[in-house]
């Protein structure tokens, strides 16, 4: 049935057993040349975007 919600209640022991069976594994942030390359591209495009907006504002002011 669409929209039906099932609520599950666990005791503390069941919750701890579930966590032990399905541990949360932390993942590391990607590093290396691919990550750095994307960050550099983002910074450059951000600078270019700011420059173009500044030029647009100056044009509108002068008109």
From TrEMBL:
Compositionally biased region (Basic and acidic residues): 52-63
Ranges for region Disordered: 27-63
Protein name: Uncharacterized protein
């Amino acid at each position: 049935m669409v929209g039906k919600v099932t609520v599950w209640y666990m005791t503390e022991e069941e919750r701890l057993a579930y966590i032990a069976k399905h541990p949360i594994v932390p993942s590391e942030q990607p590093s290396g040349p691919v990550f750095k390359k994307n960050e550099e591209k983002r910074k450059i495009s951000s600078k270019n975007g700011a420059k173009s907006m500044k030029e647009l504002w100056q044009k509108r002011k002068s008109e």
